[in-house]
Amino acid sequence: MALFREVADLAETLAAEPGRLKKRAAIAKAIAAVHAAAPESDDAGLFALYLSGTPFAEADPRKLNAGGALLTKALLSVSGATSAALHAAYKRHGDLGAAAFDLLHDREQGSRIRDQALALDEVATAFAAMVTAKTTAARAALVEGLLRRATPLEAKYLLKLMSGDMRIGVKQSLVEEAIAVAAEAPVAEVRNAVMLEADLASALRRAFAGTLAEARMRLFHPLGFMLASPVDSPEEAAERFANKQNAASVEAFLEDKYDGMRAQVHCGDAEQPGRVTIYSRNREDVTESFPDLAEAFAQVREPLIFDGEILGWDIKAGRALPFAVLGQRIGRKRVSNEWRQQVPVVFIAFDLMYAGGELLLNLPLGERRNRLEAAAERLVEKLRSPLTVDERKSAAQTAMFMQPDGEGVERMILSPARLVQSAEDIERAYADARARANEGVMLKAAASEYQPGRRGLAWVKLKRELATLDVVVTGAELGHGKRAGILSDYTFAVRSADSELLNVGKAYSGLTDAEIAEMSAWMMEHTLEDQGYFRTVEPLMVLEVAFNNIMRSNRHASGFALRFPRIIRIRTDKPVSEIDTVERVEEIYQSQVDKPVENATSH
Ligand code: AMP
């Protein structure tokens, strides 16, 4: 019977061990030992799963439903600590698990006799019960039950595991390697099994049993998304894909870059007719927010996985609505007819990842594209759903009552793609894309494989930044995690006509750790007012920031907000008197093709 203590002890050791190889060896040794002790049990599988920081296998849709508030409350109750003590401990570490260790350690100091050490399968049982718990109170009681039986170190890692944030420098891929080492199996086969079945414990079982080759693809768990690297100019893009034999031609497909929400659609499983799952880029199941799409894909009767982009769609004009409009629908759990009508959505398909019982990732893009086009041709008439539904009926009923072919909104649109010729060609296509209110263009190497979860060079994106702004920092906020105790989030301002400083945004990304440390120290020195987490600082530090869009907003005094702001550099060369003005912000705002409205959420 393996104990949770073994996970906690190893996690603590790994957190302090920077060497990847040493980490891998330590994990492999532990896995081999747990497996040897009870080869028939689930222990080694659970051990690998928990160490990789997930309470359930990826293919398992269950969720613990234990947010920060619930975990914090349980910790307060079990530790008997005051909120102030918890707050202080949290501030020291920026992490609830580490805070728990301090609080419980203080309480413990040698006093306690534990009846029985916590076994891995007991943790698994408690997690399963949390999923089905009817009330928050019942769920909290389960968490408290676990914490009461835990040592401070176990509590630390139980909380980290439950909040899905281990921070021990162990990615799933490292655990996969360790499984391969422990079971003396090829790592590529372990990885492949994990990709197909999305179940680390099952891969581990297979690795020890020698059945990795028998793993088969299952639908309804997200595959990694392939991402694109940025290029700055059409020339650079053309160069990337230039044909070595014939310098004049380029071997890449060109598509518009849509400003919507990346999504992967799974549908058509013969054993579960009508089941559809839509995953977002961060691997969440977002099907609930897009019933109109799900209804359409529910009619597919062949197993398929599509990659594409969900867009708000102007049905009459046949073009995308600005991201900010779609943004209002993203995250909604119940989508009323009003929303279905106000922001109709479509799925723009640009890749086919699975079809005919076969994963297509290793095929060249050209071939995947052919199959995508063929699938779209077979399905296009099916992939419709009504603009609005009779809300008294279920979606399945509505779909059944839909007349065949030709009625309702076409919900899947094939992303037009064509082989590109030259830099000028790309330049023109970019301008056309912008005129269609799309963000820019994507270029994808015609011979490239689909690399799940990778930002490679086979796909590049060309979107010009809007002009950058020079701003001055007016305030700073303490960061979290490894930036706990460091002022790492900066609020910044532009100048008004009468030289007042008006805030326009907040950014934390773009600087190196060393730069942030330096900035933080500087801001501690130049604090005007310390409000705990936030400090206003003397407006002396000038930054150049880039961003994707400007929108009107009441969030900041300038009346504008920047979307996805990032710091490009610290401008020690520029005095505050020369920073950009609100007028300049207005000008950039007006120059945007699609002017985002307030309320936009992030991708
Ligand atoms: P970025 O978010 O700037 O890293 O750009 C990558 C994102 O572009 C992807 O996650 C997609 O959501 C989006 N995208 C838009 N159009 C396309 C397209 N035609 N092909 C691939 N990705 C696209």
TrEMBL record:
<keyword id="KW-0067">ATP-binding</keyword>
<dbReference type="InterPro" id="IPR000977">
    <property type="entry name" value="DNA_ligase_ATP-dep"/>
</dbReference>
<protein>
    <recommendedName>
        <fullName>DNA ligase</fullName>
        <ecNumber>6.5.1.1</ecNumber>
    </recommendedName>
</protein>
<dbReference type="Pfam" id="PF04675">
    <property type="entry name" value="DNA_ligase_A_N"/>
</dbReference>
<dbReference type="GO" id="GO:0006260">
    <property type="term" value="P:DNA replication"/>
</dbReference>
<dbReference type="GO" id="GO:0003910">
    <property type="term" value="F:DNA ligase (ATP) activity"/>
</dbReference>
<keyword id="KW-0547">Nucleotide-binding</keyword>
<dbReference type="InterPro" id="IPR012308">
    <property type="entry name" value="DNA_ligase_ATP-dep_N"/>
</dbReference>
<dbReference type="Pfam" id="PF01068">
    <property type="entry name" value="DNA_ligase_A_M"/>
</dbReference>
<dbReference type="GO" id="GO:0005524">
    <property type="term" value="F:ATP binding"/>
</dbReference>
<keyword id="KW-0234">DNA repair</keyword>
<feature type="domain" description="ATP-dependent DNA ligase family profile">
    <location>
        <begin position="338"/>
        <end position="496"/>
    </location>
</feature>
<keyword id="KW-0436">Ligase</keyword>
<dbReference type="InterPro" id="IPR016059">
    <property type="entry name" value="DNA_ligase_ATP-dep_CS"/>
</dbReference>
<comment type="similarity">
    <text>Belongs to the ATP-dependent DNA ligase family.</text>
</comment>
<dbReference type="GO" id="GO:0051301">
    <property type="term" value="P:cell division"/>
</dbReference>
<keyword id="KW-0132">Cell division</keyword>
<dbReference type="InterPro" id="IPR036599">
    <property type="entry name" value="DNA_ligase_N_sf"/>
</dbReference>
<dbReference type="InterPro" id="IPR012310">
    <property type="entry name" value="DNA_ligase_ATP-dep_cent"/>
</dbReference>
<dbReference type="GO" id="GO:0071897">
    <property type="term" value="P:DNA biosynthetic process"/>
</dbReference>
<keyword id="KW-0131">Cell cycle</keyword>
<dbReference type="InterPro" id="IPR012309">
    <property type="entry name" value="DNA_ligase_ATP-dep_C"/>
</dbReference>
<dbReference type="GO" id="GO:0006281">
    <property type="term" value="P:DNA repair"/>
</dbReference>
<dbReference type="InterPro" id="IPR012340">
    <property type="entry name" value="NA-bd_OB-fold"/>
</dbReference>
<dbReference type="InterPro" id="IPR050191">
    <property type="entry name" value="ATP-dep_DNA_ligase"/>
</dbReference>
<keyword id="KW-0227">DNA damage</keyword>
<keyword id="KW-0235">DNA replication</keyword>
<dbReference type="Pfam" id="PF04679">
    <property type="entry name" value="DNA_ligase_A_C"/>
</dbReference>
<dbReference type="GO" id="GO:0003677">
    <property type="term" value="F:DNA binding"/>
</dbReference>
<keyword id="KW-0233">DNA recombination</keyword>
<dbReference type="GO" id="GO:0006310">
    <property type="term" value="P:DNA recombination"/>
</dbReference>
